[in-house]
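The data are set out underneath:

___
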Amino acid sequence: MRTDFDHLFEAAAAFVGVAALADDEAGKAFVNLMKSLFPFDYCVIFAYRGAERPIDLFSTFDAREYEIFVRMYQDGPYLLDPFFSAASLPKPGVWRMRALAPDRFFASEYYRSYYVKTGLSEEVGFFVPAGGGVTVVLSLMRGETLGVFRDAEYGLMRKAEPFVAAMVRHVWGRLGPRFDRAVTGRRHGASSDGASARARISERLTARETSIIELVLQGHSSESIGLRLGVATGTVKVHRRNIYRKLGISSQAQLMSLYLGRPKVPE
């Protein structure tokens, strides 16, 4: 692995002395900066504020990939994403997906019904609090051909993190109004099927049960949920049985379909 210093300094120069950069300009400069250090297949930059629909600031996807990685994701699966959970804490720094994922993430319905469609071998994100309760996450992704990021490459990301964080705060430090406009626009339009479905579920369950179904779909085992909520594992299992009974379902696949507002899958 050899750093392309010409490429590195050329990419860094895009941020010097510039009062403002458009999303696309900043995203391309970030990609060029990272590609001077190591190869990767995709990049996507999301902004998160609370549980609101994330704003896609930049991506390198083609039209088909964009539908999977962005449109499908924004329709509801983002709420079950380990990156969303880390952004909500917030948890600044550079994080591998596998370091943030719950104990049963790779056996979860979220992973089986959504994440596996991405075909990724690994995803690593820069998590930058940008003010006003907003966290910007710059994700670098690799497919099966390139495989996972090596430890030395991850080390380079961590060294680059202070520069990336400063860049994010310079370019995307005032995203609050964009979220406000998006919320206002959705109030004047129809609610998404997913949002309506989640509202209907919440009406039928207690607050504790609603928390549990989100943790289940994220990939937490009953033991992990018990530790997070401070209750016994057996209590969690009782809650899960009650949830399935109240919702008239018998599988996690059906729970996922209800949560995302999709047609109920057969048993």
User: Anything to note?
Assistant: DSSP finds 13 helices and five strands in the chain. The chain has a mean pLDDT of 90. Strands lie at 42-49, 55-59, 93-96, 120-131, 134-143. The longest strand covers residues 120-131.
